[in-house]
Every structure is written in C-alpha cells, then in structure tokens.
Write a structure and sequence with these properties.
One of its GO terms (molecular function) is cysteine-type endopeptidase activity. InterPro entries: Caspase-like_dom_sf (IPR029030), Caspase_cys_AS (IPR033139), Caspase_his_AS (IPR016129), Pept_C14 (IPR002398), Pept_C14_caspase (IPR011600), Pept_C14_p10 (IPR002138), Pept_C14_p20 (IPR001309), Pept_C14A (IPR015917). It holds the Pfam family Peptidase_C14. Keywords: Apoptosis, Hydrolase, Protease, Thiol protease, Zymogen. Belongs to the peptidase C14A family. By secondary structure, this protein is α/β, with parallel strands linked by helices. The protein has a single domain, classed as Rossmann fold, CATH 3.40.50.1460. About 25% of the residues lie in helices and about 20% in strands. It has six helices and 13 strands. It has a six-stranded mixed β-sheet with strand order 2-1-3-7-9-13, with helices on one face. A hairpin with a 2-residue loop joins strand 5 and strand 6.
C-alpha cells in the first residue's frame, strides 16, 4: 500500500532503478489470406519510436511481423516478469486495424486481449504504476473532411476532493493513445511514416523530459490535427484530416525526467 506522502503526491513516483520495459511491435507484412497490404513507412515509425523511448531511458525490445498468438504470448510473458525495479511500462503497436482489433501477421486480435495481462492480479508488480500503450492502426474506414475553425471562449471550474483508499481499481493507471478516433482511417506516409508517430517523435524529442504525459499527448493531438492533411491520388481521399484519441485512466501526472 502507498505511503501517505506518496498517496497525496500529484505525480507518479519515478525513483526506481530502471525506467522500465518498452515493447515495439511493428507488423509490416501480412499473410495473403488477410488481404492486408504491406505497411510501407512503418519501419520509419519503428526507428523513431525506438529512438524516443531510449532517450526516455526505457529498455526497448523490438518485434516484427508477429502472429496474433505470438503477440498475446509476448504480452503475457512481459506482464509475468518482475517490474518491481521499474517505474512504468510502455508499449507501441504498429499494424493494420479495425475498431477494437489490431492485426497480427495472420489476422486480427482484440486489443483488450493484449492489454489484459497487465491488469490487476495479472501483473502485481506494475500495480499503481503507469502502463502506457500507443496504437498506430486504423479503427475503421471513415475519412475526416475537417471543418472550418471558429474562435471560441470558455471557462473551466475545478474541485479537489481528497480521500484515502485501501485498494486501486483494476483498470487504473493506464493510458491508451490511439492514432485516430473510433471508426476512422489512420493515415500513414510511405516515406515518412504515420502522422501519429511523426507527431509523437517530434513532441517527445522536444519536450519528453520536460512536460507531463497528458500535456505531451495534447500537443501530439494538435500537431496531427493542424499540421497534416492528406494529398492522395484518389480525389475522395484528398484533403482529409485526422485526430488521435487518448483514453486515460491515469490517476497522477507522468513525468519522464532524466535519472542521471
């Protein structure tokens, strides 16, 4: 159980000997039976994420063209390791996808099956620690035509309630960052990589050790939304936009300040 000081802290403790494990699954090629094409440009994403994760002092482990069963086995294996000396866990999955699923070399698998091993009693050594997932994959086939921006003003009220708990929810302390909102196509450039990972790489390169994770991801959202627009050979796919989707169950701020 957390000490009282740790409980009332607004930041996750990042004082373990190691930052933690970062998994990169980069599925580029697929079995013909899936009718999925090669994901050109994904190797660029892989390289960029590896560099950014290493800068944040993660132990990076790389995998390519995994079958769906191998993806699930990998997640169970890593979740079953001791993370007692680690601050947190990071995972990036790069593949084709549909709403709720992501493709292995031989077909789709539910994303929740890959995340489940890190929940609750399945992975006690990561309980109360950030578990962060980046998912670069389509979540449908809809295209976002965008909308003209108008100025707006608003206000926000906040209320702080302090109370003590004996247990934490099984679903707590996760952040799942999807490249796109449900139902939509996720754009990827064959030369430069996906819009989402390009934005992550740029933001984390500049601010990865300075800003908290939610602020970083908000800046990623802005970069994708404002700096990218499709220019495809097919007219119906031209001038389209994209916005990532960040699902957060974090209970504190995540900072990746240097351990040195």
């Amino acid at each position: 159980m957390e000490t009282e000081e740790a409980f009332y802290s607004e930041e996750y403790a990042m004082n373990k000997p190691n930052r933690g494990v970062a998994i990169i699954i980069n599925n580029v090629s697929f079995h013909p039976s899936t009718q999925m094409g090669e994901r050109t440009g994904s190797d660029k994403d892989h390289k960029a994420l590896k560099q950014r994760f290493k800068e944040l002092e993660f132990d990076v482990r790389e995998f390519k063209n995994l079958k769906r069963d191998d993806m699930e086995s990998l997640m169970k294996k890593v979740a079953g390791e001791s993370h007692d000396n680690n601050d947190c866990f990071m995972c990036a999955m790069l593949s084709h996808g549909e709403e709720g699923t992501i493709y292995g070399f031989d077909g789709p698998i539910e994303i929740q099956r890959l995340i489940e091993p890190f929940k609750g009693h399945n992975c006690r050594s990561l309980a109360g620690k950030p578990k962060i997932f980046f998912i670069q994959a389509c979540r449908g086939s809809k295209l976002d035509a965008g909308v003209e921006q108008q100025d707006s003003k608003g206000s926000r009220e906040s209320e702080t309630i302090e109370y003590k708990v004996q247990r934490i929810p099984t679903e707590a302390d996760f952040l799942i960052a999807y490249s796109v909102v449900p139902g939509y196509f996720s754009w990827r450039n064959s030369a430069n990589g996906s819009w989402f990972v390009q934005a992550i790489s740029e933001v984390f390169r500049k601010y990865g050790q300075k800003l908290d994770l939610m602020t970083l991801m908000t800046r990623v959202n802005k970069l994708v939304a404002y700096n990218f627009e499709s220019n495809a050979s097919k007219e119906y796919m031209t001038n389209k936009k994209q916005i990532p989707c960040i699902t957060s169950m974090l209970t504190k701020d995540v900072y990746f300040r240097s351990k040195n």
